[in-house]
Amino acid sequence: MLLQTDKLKASQTNNFFLLAGPCVIEGEDMALNIAEHIVKITRRLDIPYIFKGSYRKANRSRIDSFTGIGDEKALRILRRISETFGIPVVTDIHTAAEAAIAAEYVDVLQIPAFLCRQTDLLIAAAQTGKTVNIKKGQFLSPEAMKFAAQKIIDAGNDKVAITERGTTFGYHDLIVDYRGIPEMQTFGYPVILDVTHSLQQPNQTSGVTGGMPQLIETIARAGIATGADGLFMETHPEPSKAKSDGANMLRLDLLEPLLERLVAIRQTINRF
C-alpha cells in the first residue's frame, strides 16, 4: 500500500516506499546534496521516495541540544527540495499551531511517537488535508494505534500512515515486535518501519541519545520480510558530525548497497 500524496510516483515493480534524509535540516547545501543522492538511487531502483527532514527538533534531553537553523528557513529548504526534484517531503510537527504553518511547505506531516495520543495535534494535522504519518508511541501496543488513526479519519482526512519505531525495553533500549506490522496493516493504512529510530538507545547519562547503527540492515531486512509497506531511515554523509541523532543514523554512502539488497528481498517476497 502506497502513502497517499500527489507527488509520490507509484512503483512499477510493487516495491516498498522510502522516507529518508537527515534527522534535522542543518543547511541548504547539505539537504539538497542528500536529496539529490537519494533521488538518483531510488529512481534507478524504482523505489517511491519521500525526503525527510525535521525543520525543528523539540524533544531533546538537554537544553543545549541543537534544535534547528530557524523554522521558516528550514521549511523553505524543504519546499525547495520538493520543487527541485519533484518529490514529496515530510517533517515533524509538535503543536497544533505548527500544523497549518508546516502544511504550507510540505506534503506529509509527521506526528512524533511521544505525541501520538495528543488529540488536538492529530486533529490540527488532519484538518490541513495533508497526509499524516503517525509514529507509534514507544509505550503503546500496535492495536492501540487504531485509535490514533481514527482521530485523523474522524477529522475528515483519510490520508493516514502508521510508523513502527520500537517499543521501550528497560531504560536504555527499544525492541521491535514484528507482529505489529501485519497487525497494524489490518487497519487499512500503510505501515512503515522506522529502522534507525528503532535502534536508538535513549536516556544515556550523557543526555545524548545513543544507538546501534551496525544493526540497521538487520532491522530493515526483517521489516521487508515481514511485509512493511515502507521504510524510514535517517542518513547523513558523516553521522559523527550530525547535529542530531548521529549515533543511530546510516552513513549516506552505505544507503545504495543496502537498498539494492532490500529490493532483492522484496522481489523475492513478491513472488510469493
UniProtKB/TrEMBL annotation:
Would you kindly state one Gene Ontology biological process term found in this protein's UniProt entry? lipopolysaccharide biosynthetic process
Q: What is its main location?
A: cytoplasm
The EC number(s) this enzyme carries: 2.5.1.55
Associated pathway: Carbohydrate biosynthesis; 3-deoxy-D-manno-octulosonate biosynthesis; 3-deoxy-D-manno-octulosonate from D-ribulose 5-phosphate: step 2/3; Bacterial outer membrane biogenesis; lipopolysaccharide biosynthesis
Source domain of life: Bacteria
User: Does the entry feature the keyword Cytoplasm, yes or no?
Assistant: yes
Task: State the signal peptide span.
Answer: none
Q: What's in the keyword line of the UniProt record?
A: Cytoplasm, Transferase
Q: Which GO terms describe its molecular function?
A: 3-deoxy-8-phosphooctulonate synthase activity
A single GO cellular-component term on record: cytoplasm
Top-tier EC class: transferase
**SUPFAM superfamilies assigned to the protein according to its UniProt record, in alphabetical order:** Aldolase
Question: Taking every annotated instance into account, which residue ranges of this chain make up the domain DAHP synthetase I/KDSA?
Answer: 10-262
One Pfam family linked to the record: DAHP_synth_1
Q: Where in the cell is it found?
A: Cytoplasm
Q: Which InterPro entries match?
A: Aldolase_TIM, DAHP1/KDSA, KDO8P_synthase
User: Per the record, what are the reactions this protein catalyses?
Assistant: D-arabinose 5-phosphate + phosphoenolpyruvate + H2O = 3-deoxy-alpha-D-manno-2-octulosonate-8-phosphate + phosphate
Q: Does the keyword Cytoplasm apply?
A: yes
Q: Which family does it belong to?
A: Belongs to the KdsA family.
For this protein, the record's PANTHER family field holds: PHOSPHO-2-DEHYDRO-3-DEOXYHEPTONATE ALDOLASE (PTHR21057)
Protein name according to UniProt: 3-deoxy-8-phosphooctulonate synthase
Organism encoding this protein: Coprobacter secundus subsp. similis
